[in-house]
Amino acid sequence: MLSLLDIHEPPRRKAPAALWRRWFRPPVKGFLEWCAGQPYMRVCCEQHARGIDWRMVAAHSLEPSCRLLMPADIECPAESGLRRFTPTRYIRRMFERLALNILISSPLPPAQRRLAMYGRESEIALLLPHLVPLVGELRIITRRPETLSDLTEELSRRSGMPIVLTRDLSAGGCPMVLAPSGGAAAISQEGVTLCLSPDRPVGFGGLWVGSFAPTLPPALEGIYTPAYDLLEFCGAFYELSGIGMMATPRAGISGGAQYTPEMLGEMLVGQ
Asked: Looking at the whole model, is its pTM more than 0.90?
């Protein structure tokens, strides 16, 4: 279950009231709340001049290790046992969705679209049926290609498109590379125009999209505030609260600039 840290300044009170509040009103409270039918714990914390009571925050958090959603400008001390939640599964899924939207938005006909994908076998197996109808050439780079041979043979038979399975860490001339869980730094990017991966490719001269701008799901509109990183916020609720919604990323981010799927799809023309 998700624990969300909600930090606010205590109200200004006169000395007697402030002393009473300090002794009889705890600075940290936990409230069980609901979003889209799923529970989460809101940990409300007052930030005094002496700082945040991280011991109390940890006591109220349901999952102290790696499962605390915090405001973007807050850093907790290492000795607290708390760490900021990183939505790795959500990031992977959103990179995959961005890649699909780019291919769909590209003015190229499917037969002329070429893509190289690098990742874990289980992740590739889930995405392959969605990729095959959108491309004319598909190169799968993985450590154990033999585990995907039956699936790729079946998809190739149905679509009539050859699918290359290889351990060779090369894009093989494909202009677009997708590495949603990372690993792009290990792939030879010769001839690549567009690379989608959370890690930066080495010696890459094309456009590296290392992040994305998510869309806030309607169920979170009454909960989200600008104090939180939007990507972390959406990812935390998706991964930890079981909310089965995946909003489409509205843009990929490269060097601080945002590129819509249509803009990125145009980059594949002539490659």
From this structure: no
